[in-house]
Design brief:
The protein has 6 helices and no strands. The protein has helices at residues 2-10, 20-30, 34-45, 49-74, 97-106, 114-126. The longest helix has 26 residues, at 49-74.
Amino acid sequence: QGVDLALKKVWPSAKRRYCSTNLSRNFKKAFPSPLMYILFWRACNATKPYSFKKAMERLRKEGKTHVMKWFADLGQQSKWTKCKFDPNVCCDTNTSNFVESFNFTLGVDRCRPVLTMLEGELYYFINGLQV
C-alpha cells in the first residue's frame, strides 16, 4: 500500500496493475479451496466481459459475501482482471514475471542501495568488463 501512495504522489496519472500471482497467494490464504483458486484465476485471466461475469458469479455462489468483500477491497477491477485493462496500455500481462526474473538476476546485490548497484554497473561499463 505504501507503493500505491508513493506512486500516486509522484506519478498521479500512471496506470498500475496488481500482480495476480501475489494476489493469488493472499486469496489462497483467505479461501484455501482448490475450486476457489481456479475460479480466482478464471476471473483474473478473463479477456471478455461475459467470461469475467460468469467467473465472478461462480465465485459469489461458492464464496458468498466473504469473497465478494475480498474483491471489493482490492479496489478497481482494472488493476487485476484482463478484461478491464486499459486498452491504451499496450500490455495484457497480469503477473510480474519480468520483475521476479530481474530480482533473481540481481541475486545478492538486490539488498544493496540502488545507487551502489548503478555505480557498480557504471564501473563495469567504463572498463569494458563483463558483469
